[in-house]
Design a protein that fits this description.
It contains seven helices and three strands, in the order ααβααββααα. The protein has helices at 17-23, 28-43, 58-65, 68-77, 100-132, 134-152, 173-176, and strands at 52-54, 80-84, 87-91. Residues 29-104 form the PUB domain.
């Protein structure tokens, strides 16, 4: 029997600590910057300028140092917070490298964040449309009134009982010619 390319059964895939830290970041710009910094280190691992980030840099300070979730992601990747010559820095030790696996994780986190932000925007648009539609507002009021009416009613404590409904007779579909066959 040949393998037909079917996917394996459903499995729960555990996210790595880095993936969890990256998914917690709330700004796509921060993920873009982290990806760019990681690509630089992955492409040139021995280049010292890519292994040291200073808080004095406005973009680095705003996107990484001021965001505790971004700092947590950086620490998870192996970056160390230090004070060098009186300025706060993040450094990546010599033995620690960044691979394209981390870069792909950042790309996936950015894609997930953008999807989540788009869905939130769609939800806001739907909510605004519902709030501005007078028919929906009237229907919502009717539903609330019905809910309030049911809440004040006494609970049903007796079961249903059969009631006689006239002297009708039962007729089958075949007897009225609606059985879908030729009458056999």
């Amino acid at each position: 029997m040949a393998y037909a390319g079917y996917a394996p059964g459903h499995r729960v895939v555990e996210r790595t600590p880095l993936e969890r830290a990256l998914r917690a970041i709330a700004r796509p710009e921060t993920l873009d910057l982290l990806e760019r910094l990681s690509k630089n280190v992955a492409r040139a691992p021995s280049e010292a300028k890519y292994r040291k980030l200073k808080r004095a840099n406005a973009t680095i300070g705003r996107e990484i140092f001021d965001d505790e979730r971004a700092m947590r992601a950086m620490m998870t990747m192996g970056w160390i917070a230090e004070t060098i010559e009186g300025s706060e820095c993040l450094t990546l030790p010599r033995g620690t490298t960044t691979t394209m696996r981390e870069v792909r994780a950042m790309d996936e986190a950015r894609t997930a964040l953008r999807r989540r932000l788009e869905e939130e925007m769609r939800a806001k648009i739907r909510a605004r449309a519902m709030a501005n539609d007078p028919r929906r507002a009237a229907l919502r009021e009717a539903v609330e009134a019905d809910r309030a009416e049911r809440a004040v009613r006494e609970p049903v404590t007796t079961g249903s009982r059969a009631a006689a409904r006239g002297t009708g007779t039962t007729v089958t579909a075949k007897e009225v010619g609606a059985s879908g066959s030729s009458g056999c």
